[in-house]
Amino acid sequence: MPAELCLGLLRRAARVHRAGLKSYGLLVAEPGTAGYPFTAADVVFLDPGKNRRNDPGHRAAFRAQGEYFRQYDDAGFVADPAELLAAWRAIEDSGRQVVAPFHSHRRQPANFSLIDYRLHNPAFAWHLIISLRDPRHPVLQPFRVHKELSDFGISDQDACQGSELAYQGPEVQPLALVARGAHPTIRRLTSTLAPAGSPKTATAA
């Protein structure tokens, strides 16, 4: 990702976090670019005020994922279908493509949790987590994710516990974040991120 894009992503996610809300959105790239689809040239935030997580049907499904999701009604994000469709169409009309989703963790580390795995769209090969557990030192962590179409979604019949904990299966592997840009931008990014989440960097030629 461009380092400037990373900084913009962090700034906006921090504003959403300060408002007591969760970030969710789409990472966008130009088809055919180097590293595609494990690249991002832009980000699209969905409106955090339109999170459908607490609509009656979705709320019951999240509460069935364990005590953490019963205690925190801001844990989880369900996109507004109309907004998601409009964003998707606008991206495709521009000639770009969605390559991965991203979302923030308000209290949890930058793990890829059990519920993250279950809700990850299997059409995408990766997913970016932004941990704002310490808002002064956020963590950006991408994950490679492989799953089948049959393993998607949660239910109010699940009766799970600990769904916020890290998924341990081989289907999820951490990726290195490579940020590209000029030296001053790279320095701002690395000084912003927590040490454990510091990206590999490359300066512009």
Task: Walk me through this protein's architecture.
- With 205 residues, the chain is an alpha/beta fold.
- Helix content is 28%, strand content 21%.
- It has helices spanning 3-18, 56-63, 67-71, 81-93, 114-119, 183-192; strands spanning 24-29, 42-45, 97-105, 126-131, 139-145, 172-174, 178-181, 200-203.
- The strands form two sheets. The chain has a six-stranded mixed β-sheet.
- β3 (97-105), α5 (114-119) and β4 form a beta-alpha-beta unit.
- The protein is globular.
- It starts with a helix and ends with a strand.
- The mean pLDDT is 93.
Question: Over all CA atoms, what is the radius of gyration?
Answer: 17 Å
Calculate the terminal CA-CA distance, rounded to whole Å: 15 Å
Mean pLDDT: 93
Q: How are helices and strands ordered from N to C?
A: HEEHHHEHEEEEHE
What are the low-pLDDT stretches, counting only 5+ consecutive residues below 50?
none
Structural class: alpha/beta
